[in-house]
Amino acid sequence: MALISLSPRHLHLRAALPFRVYDANGMLMLASGTAIEHEAQLQTLRSKALFADDSEAQGWLERANQTVQALMLDDAPLQQIAVARWRDTGSGAALTRESLGRAGGDSPSRQRCASALDTNISLIERWESQMQQVTALLREGQRDSGWLERLYLAVTISNSLAESHPNEVLFLMIQHAAHQTRHYSSHHAALCAVICTRVATALQWTDDEVQALSLASITMNLSMTALQDRLATQKEPPTPEQREQIQSHALRSASELAAIGVRDPRWLKVVRLHHDRSLLETPLARLDSSSRLARLLGVVDRFTAKVSRRASRSPMSPLAAARDACVGPDGRPDELGSALLKTLGMYPPGSYVQLATGEIGVVLARGGKANEPMVAALVGTSGLPLADPVLRDTSRTGRAVTGAVAVADVRVRIHHEKLLELI
Q1: In DSSP terms, which residues pair with 3 in a beta bridge?
Q2: Hey, what domains does the chain have and what are their CATH numbers?
Q3: Residue range 357-370: mean pLDDT, rounded
C-alpha cells in the first residue's frame, strides 16, 4: 500500500469519500464510503495528518483536478482558474464554467497549457514540459504584469499535476535533484514548492497560506536564478561578489516581486524571510502566519539543497538531509521537521535504500508506515543489476529497509518510465 497526503479540505459532514483514510502511522481512520455524521468527528480527523491509498484515491483526485485542467484548455480567465484551483472541490466532481461564473480578465494561451495537460502523452513528458515553462519564466529578463499571470498559471498547472500524481512527481523531482545539475535553480524551486505544499496541507494550514507558500517557493531566488545555476556547476568556492549576491538575494527577490506588481504582503514577507534563522528560535505558535510559512520554506529549502547534486559535492541521502535540516539543537526534529518526515516518510520517493535481503532498491512511494516505503529492487543479492525492477513489500519480515544508500553507490541505469508503471 502506497500512501499519499490527503488535504483535510476534502472532508465534509455527511459526505462519504470513495476510499479509505489513514493517519501518519497507517491506522485506518475512515472506511471507504463512510460518511462523517458529527462535527466532533470531523474536527478530530481534520486535526491529524491524513493519508489515502494511492491506488484507491488517485482517480478521485484526478477528477477533482479536472476543473482546473478543463478551464485551462478552454482558455478560461486566469482569475477563474485561481478560484477553481483553491476552492474546495467537495465530492471531487469537476465544477463547470457555469457554476463558477465568468470572472473577467485576460485568458491564457491554449498552446501554453496543452503540452502540460495533454493526457495522451506520458506524465514524464508533461512534467518536463511544465518544468521548461517554469525555467523560462524564472530566466526571463523582462517582467511585467503579463509575467505575473504566466507565473501564476505555471504554478497552478504544477500544483494540479503534483496533486494528481503525488508519488510520481516527487519521484521524478528527487531523481533529477540527485543526478543532474541542469536548470538547478528552477528545479530546486519547484521541488521546494511541491514539498512545502504537501507539508502545509498535512498541517491543515489554510488554502490562502498554501497558495502564498507555493508562489514564494517558486520565486524565493528570483534575483539570483542565473547565479544559482552557475554555482551548481562551479567547483570553486563562491567569490566575494557571489557571496554578496547570495547573502542579499532574499531581500532583492522580494523587492523585484514588489516592483513587478505583487501586492500580497504574505508572499513578499515569506520570500524576504525564508533565510532568517532567528525564526527557528521562536516557538512556532508565537509566529505570525507569514513568519510560520517562511520558517517552513527555510527548512524545506535546506533539505532539498542537501539532497541535490552540485559539481562541488555529491547529494546526501534524504534521511541524512532531514537529520541535518530538521533536527534542532536537542537532537530531536522540531515541529516542522517532524511534519516533513511524517509527510514524506523516512525514505521519500526517488531515494535509494538497502533491504534486509541485501538488495538495493529505489523508493516509489510512501508506505503504510514512515519506515516501510514501496520499493523497486534494482540490484539483487548477488550485487548484480536485476533485468527488470521488482516490487518489494518492505513491511514483510526479512524485507525491511535497513538504511539509505548513497547515490554514488547505485551503479544502475534508471528507467523512469518503467519504474513509474509500478506505482
Answers
A1: 53, 366
A2: 3-54 (no CATH), 64-344 (1.10.3210.10), 352-420 (no CATH)
A3: 90
